[in-house]
Design a protein that fits this description.
seven-stranded parallel beta sheet; Alpha/beta knot; 36% helix; alpha/beta
Length: 179
């Protein structure tokens, strides 16, 4: 496996060529009105780290090109496939029409949620994360297949959206790609 240093990562032509050779995993990510451009860029890096097939940027989520997204992503916006949809529900409908038997899971605190480490993740999977203040929208929570939650033991009641996605996506990787 080829590993690039920081300078090489910033040269998108070399990185793009290498990225095309990597087998993509059946992992899709939806950003439901994620507003912080550094979170968006970091999620692109995370998507590259797990070789996710695609990111859907929805609603008020900023799209590339954007210098803050580019900086946080270390150019992964150049080789991680992405598209923009007006809403996360539109993205979910699109995914369900194009990918057979996909499991769509929101990462959110809810009375309907299951502990993230007790859930039975299946591939292909689409993970949905929401707005930094309001979370995944109610409309989306009504149409997903499941909701998973990360337990909080301190004073704070939530984690950063990228951190939450990282925890859950690596649980998916652990269960399906480390075998």
């Amino acid at each position: 496996m080829v590993k690039l240093n920081a300078a090489q990562l910033r040269k998108s032509s070399q990185s793009s060529a290498i990225s095309r050779q990597i087998k993509k995993n059946d992992i899709y990510i939806i950003l439901d009105n994620v507003l912080d451009t550094y979170n968006i860029g970091s999620i692109f890096r995370l998507a590259d780290a797990v070789a996710a097939k695609k990111i859907y940027l929805c609603g008020g989520t900023e799209t590339p090109p954007n210098h803050r997204i580019k900086k946080a992503s270390i150019n992964t916006t150049e080789w991680v496939e992405w598209s923009y949809k007006e809403s996360a529900t539109e993205a979910i409908n699109d995914i369900r029409l194009t990918i057979n038997d996909i499991q769509i899971v929101a990462i959110e605190q809810s009375t309907k949620s299951v502990q993230y480490d007790e859930f039975n993740y299946k591939l292909p999977i689409c993970l949905v994360v929401g707005n930094e203040t309001y979370g995944v929208s109610k409309e989306v929570l009504e149409v997903v297949d499941a909701i998973v939650e990360i337990p909080m033991f301190g004073v704070n009641i939530s984690l950063n959206v990228m951190v939450s996605l990282g925890i859950v996506v690596y649980k998916v990787v652990e269960r399906h790609l480390y075998k």
